[in-house]
Design brief:
Layout lengths: L5 E3 H13 L6 H15 L7 H16 L8 H16 L9 E3 H14 L5 H13 L4 H26 L4 H27 L1
Antiparallel strand pairs: 1-2
Helix pairs in contact: 1-2, 1-3, 1-4, 1-5, 2-5, 4-6, 5-6, 5-7, 7-8
């Protein structure tokens, strides 16, 4: 696997926001996931909290999105915003506590893309571009993507099970099995990102 490049946390969060916006609508589930990722990413920082930097991140992203003149250029404007984040990163070097690994950013992007119930063509296109900018191995990307798809399928199955009229014990056993399968996938993702 190629080097797992570090990217600054604020730029990483801007990229996550651009991904949320790429399908033209930001839903509540995506906003909640963004807050969760931001809080987790910046929880160890002594210099700032997510709540302190969130307004700056949103302002920078919205300023970029305001550049859209016609709807057919919407994706291009978002791509330019992501590229600007990477241009800022070119001369910077981060310690492990200051930056986020590219593989972790990729996993966060995939999680955000599935949290609203879909994985659009433009989301995948943007995520693949980010992977190239991070110089991530394409096999790693595909494994992370397949893991995200599997977890999404398990989540859907669990929601469906809860609506069935099967006996409680049967549903409980099946949900437990889903939970175990999800844990195995997450462990494999963790190992992938540690390699």
């Amino acid at each position: 696997m190629k080097d797992d490049k570090l990217i600054g946390k604020e730029n990483a969060l801007q990229i996550v926001y651009y991904l949320m916006a790429v399908d033209g609508e930001i839903c509540k589930a995506e906003e909640e996931m963004f807050d969760s990722i931001g809080n987790e990413m910046l929880e160890e920082q002594s210099w700032c909290s997510f709540d302190e930097v969130k307004p700056e991140i949103l302002e920078a992203c919205k300023e970029q999105l305001d550049k859209v003149i016609d709807q057919d250029e919407y994706y291009d404007v978002i791509r330019e915003g992501v590229e600007a984040c990477f241009e800022e990163e070119e001369e910077r070097y981060y310690s492990d506590s200051e930056g986020i690994k590219g593989s972790m950013l990729m996993w966060n992007l995939l999680a955000v893309s599935f949290c609203d119930g879909g994985y659009t063509k433009d989301e995948r296109r943007l995520i693949k571009m980010v992977g190239r900018k991070l110089n991530l191995d394409k096999t790693l990307f595909l494994e992370l993507e397949n893991s995200a798809k599997a977890i999404y399928a398990l989540d859907k199955e669990e929601v469906w099970l809860k609506t069935t009229d099967r006996p409680y014990k049967t549903i409980e056993d099946m949900i437990s099995e889903i939970s175990n399968r999800r844990a195995v996938i997450m462990q494999s993702v963790k190992e992938l990102m540690e390699d």
